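User: Design a sequence. Structure:
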């Protein structure tokens, strides 16, 4: 009898204990600055655009209380999640729930699955709320069993791409209509030169998680390297493939692995060239630079960002190192709308 029990215990799968997380998100009327003097009225999550990082492990039980402090209805859709047996937590107004009315709260409960680079966004009037009111944030679900290449990663970055129509900047509740012409383009809510560099060192194994959070296509090109595309929409590719440019559309995610083997200052930009303007002025929009720490910036007299004040965590790289949970990002905070 005892021997049978011991055998059973040995054969029993070792159930990694799932964590339970309780998070709170409030939706606020917030003014953010995309670049220079270009402000935009957003419906922010906890006052910031993009929203806080939610970083959990596959199988974790998630509870998110959402409080709507704006004057318009909203929901949150957890993009990429299976919601098995929890479809009423999918966040689609008039299909899985009534939209969260102004002043009301709604609690979402679901299991974090599958693993990968996911994101969350409003699902009410998405052509306005997602396309140009900043209602999006990253949801990173670590796999229970990481791939060998994931175990090698030394630097982890998130880039969320979006486009904005400045005509509607100060007209919340309007916009997102046929004929809109986007004229501002951002990575993590900022346009060049108000973006930040990626600071890496030779030998780093860099993962860059691209998220198409806006309404435009983006063709992201990284100079000086060939990266491997290892995941699409959070799911590992059977055959990762090398590339130096990757096209991503609205809603899509790609995980790239870049092996840092070529010290220098390397441009990273949207190769759809009209996405590298700020309003009527080139150059701006979706541009940043990979800065190898081996290169002394002060000696590069031509370098536009030679004296730039470095703000870490612009790509959530510091937040991603923290224990699992929800992490706000000071640098993305706007100011309360009047
Ligand atoms: Cu909304």
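Assistant: Done.
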């Amino acid at each position: 009898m005892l021997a049978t029990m011991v055998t059973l215990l040995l054969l029993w799968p070792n159930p990694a204990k799932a964590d339970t997380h309780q998070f709170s998100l409030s939706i606020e009327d917030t003014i953010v600055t995309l670049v220079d003097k270009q402000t935009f009225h957003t419906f922010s999550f906890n006052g910031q655009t993009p929203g806080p990082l939610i970083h959990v492990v596959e199988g974790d039980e998630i509870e998110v209380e959402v409080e709507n402090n704006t004057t318009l209805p909203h929901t949150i859709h957890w993009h990429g999640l299976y919601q098995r047996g929890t479809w009423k937590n999918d966040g689609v107004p008039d299909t899985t729930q009534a939209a969260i009315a102004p002043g009301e709260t709604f609690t979402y409960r679901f299991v974090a699955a599958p693993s990968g680079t996911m994101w969350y966004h409003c699902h009410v009037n998405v052509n306005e709320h997602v396309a140009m009111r900043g209602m999006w944030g990253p949801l990173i679900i670590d796999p229970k069993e990481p791939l060998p290449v994931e175990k090698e990663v030394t630097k982890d970055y998130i880039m969320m791409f979006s486009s904005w129509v400045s005509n509607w900047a100060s007209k919340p509740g309007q916009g997102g209509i046929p004929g809109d012409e986007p004229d501002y383009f951002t990575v993590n809510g900022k346009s060049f030169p108000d973006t930040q560099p990626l600071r890496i060192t030779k030998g780093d194994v860099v993962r860059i998680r691209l998220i198409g959070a806006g309404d435009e296509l983006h063709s992201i090109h990284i100079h000086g390297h060939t990266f491997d595309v290892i995941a699409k929409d959070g799911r590992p590719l059977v055959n990762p493939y090398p590339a130096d440019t990757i096209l991503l559309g609205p809603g899509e995610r790609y995980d790239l692995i870049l092996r840092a083997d070529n010290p220098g200052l390397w441009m990273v930009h949207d190769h759809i060239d009209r996405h590298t303007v700020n309003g009527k002025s080139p150059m701006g929009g979706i541009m940043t630079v990979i800065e190898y720490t081996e290169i002394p910036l002060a000696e590069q007299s031509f370098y536009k960002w030679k004296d730039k004040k470095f703000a870490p965590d612009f790509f959530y790289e510091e937040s991603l190192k923290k224990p699992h949970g929800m992490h706000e990002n000071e640098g993305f905070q706007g100011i309360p709308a009047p």
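Residues 43, 74, 122, 124, 129, 135 surround copper (II) ion (CB under 6 Å). The first helix runs from residue 2 to 11.
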